[in-house]
Amino acid sequence: MAPRTVLVEADGGARGNPGPAGYGAVVRDSATGAVLAERSEAIGTATNNVAEYRGLIAGLTAAAELGADEVQVKMDSKLVVEQMSGRWQIKHPGLRPLAAEAARLVGRFTAVRFEWIPRDRNTHADALANAAMDAAAAAGVATADVASPRLVEPPRNLSGPQPAGGGAARVAAHAESPGADLTNAPVSWEPRPSFTATRLILVRHGETEYTEQGRYSGRGDIALSPKGQDQVRATATRVATLAPDAAAVISSPLTRCTATAAAIAGALGDVPVRRDDDLIECDFGAWEGRTFADVREHWAGELDAWLASPRVAPPDGESFAEVATRCARVIERVCTAYPGQTVILVSHVSPIKLMLRDALAATDAFLHRLYLDAAGISVFDRWPDGGLAVRTVNDTAHL
């Protein structure tokens, strides 16, 4: 039986900085302290920090292979612990791809906690790293250059809040990201009676000044711009045509959504509007209100790590995995409260992308490849047995 929680001890070093380098990693059962796996390797000529990151990656990889759910990482590298915890920026370009690779591995677990420990409490991993360097030196192969993992640049304007600029786009499988559990949803080619399904019409709010300026717009309560107000009027007319008998309009609590929802409700004949806090945009923390280019310049490593895994949050912010969990709650509540009816959900880029990802049973790559326009409309049906049919994605014919 796979251990639910494991301890990873990792270390790395170089004889010279840079110099002949190696790493060591130990995976232990958290309950008993028993050693479950050891990893060590000489990596050629590298810096201490590169070797330490390689040790972390090796330890996380071994923990994943063992099927662990939760990991506690202990290292005597203050730099790695603080950077992976999101408290320090990753300024050195040589460490950014390694941090992104580590973040991708972090996304495979339910929880990962990082703790700094003194060197004298990390002797097992340290001994493995030194043994790897000794063996390489004896074999005369310690001068090979270390190769950093190659990371793929994501498409522009398609990731998360649709920022401009690149970054690491290692994406994990859908099964690694919490959201609606659709693995057992029934499948069939046979037509289903639409009147038994709950129809969800997802509407992104109209444009704001932040939309036009290319800024991260999360929990900041930014009003619609004049263009956004025009978009909302057109969207309200379109939704009233699509769903004249809609039972309710449910909105994020932020002004740009409540204004959009009010216009839709008015076009439907004053259908009630209800606010749901779980529909709010992702919390972008320290990046809120900053341009995409500014975040790329000042938080390049953190941005790469965030793009690499939906479980990584911006500094002081919220991860997409957390957003997906609350979006799943919204869908369950709506389908329970309005069976066989049509409901309009007015929200933001991140929640709508995540709801569509789960409805399509897509991988996390979907988040980087889907573009959602301001005031765009998406539609899917959900039947009482869990069956799903996505009918429309990002309809903008009304704009």
UniProtKB/TrEMBL annotation:
GO terms for cellular component: cytoplasm. The active site is at H205 (tele-phosphohistidine intermediate), E281 (proton donor/acceptor), E281 (proton donor/acceptor). SUPFAM superfamilies: Phosphoglycerate mutase-like (SSF53254), Ribonuclease H-like (SSF53098). Substrate binds at R256. This is Bifunctional RNase H/acid phosphatase. Signal peptide: none annotated. One of its GO terms (molecular function) is nucleic acid binding. Pfam families: His_Phos_1, RVT_3. It comes from the Bacteria. It comes from Micromonospora endophytica.
